[in-house]
Every structure is written in structure tokens, then in C-alpha cells.
Design the sequence.
């Protein structure tokens, strides 16, 4: 079974192909895989791509924030800008397990030992 291709996201758009290639080289030099896509050749022109844009640099989705930082752009809005949200702790479950471990098991062990001793 073939694995799905990794998601590539645009990190910068350039009016000149040479500028896009220089940006991609700068990213590759810092360990981020980057590809230059030419508008009209590799990608279709859409409403999201202004008419003056000739090329865009794309990177893996997980490298987007770092690539934006290296190229001097603001981090994308969807990039995590802080610590991840805290997971909820199931308090009732933790207390139940604690009660069983500290009360019920020792109590059963005592009763078993007491009954076997008689």
C-alpha cells in the first residue's frame, strides 16, 4: 500500500523566479526541504495567487512556521504560538484507582491473612 504524499504548504510568493529560488536555497541550507513551484506551470492561478506572482516556495506543513521565521515573514496564524493545550485529567478515575490501590487491596489482604491464620 502506498503512503500518502506529505502535505506541502506555500510559505512565500515571489514576483520573480530567481528570488523564489534564492529563498528555497536559503531554507535548504538551514535544513528545511523547500520546492519552488511556478505559477501557471506547477500550480494553477487562483484567487489566492495575485496576478503578479510568478513562483511560490512550498515546504512541509510542520516546517511552515520555522520557514516563515527564516525568510523574515510573520509566523502563520495557524502555527502554534505557545505551549500545547493541557490535557484534562480524569480526576474521578484517578481517585478511584487510588482508593482501590490504597484501601481495598490492603483490606482484602488483611482479611485473607486473618482468615487463613485461624
Sequence:
Amino acid at each position: 500500500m502506498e503512503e500518502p504524499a506529505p502535505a506541502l504548504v506555500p510559505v512565500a510568493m515571489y514576483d520573480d523566479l530567481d528570488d523564489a529560488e534564492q529563498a528555497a536555497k536559503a531554507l535548504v541550507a538551514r535544513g528545511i526541504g523547500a520546492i519552488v513551484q511556478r505559477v501557471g506551470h506547477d500550480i494553477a492561478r487562483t484567487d489566492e495567487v495575485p496576478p503578479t506572482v510568478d513562483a511560490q516556495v512550498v515546504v512541509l506543513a510542520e516546517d511552515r512556521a520555522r520557514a516563515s521565521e527564516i525568510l523574515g515573514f510573520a509566523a502563520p496564524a495557524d502555527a502554534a504560538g505557545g505551549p500545547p493545550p493541557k490535557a484534562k485529567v480524569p480526576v474521578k478515575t484517578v481517585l478511584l484507582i487510588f482508593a482501590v490501590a490504597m484501601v481495598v487491596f490492603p483490606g482484602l489482604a488483611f482479611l485473607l491473612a486473618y482468615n487463613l491464620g485461624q
The first strand starts at residue 8 and ends at 14. The chain has a mean pLDDT of 80. The chain is about 40% helix and 15% strand.
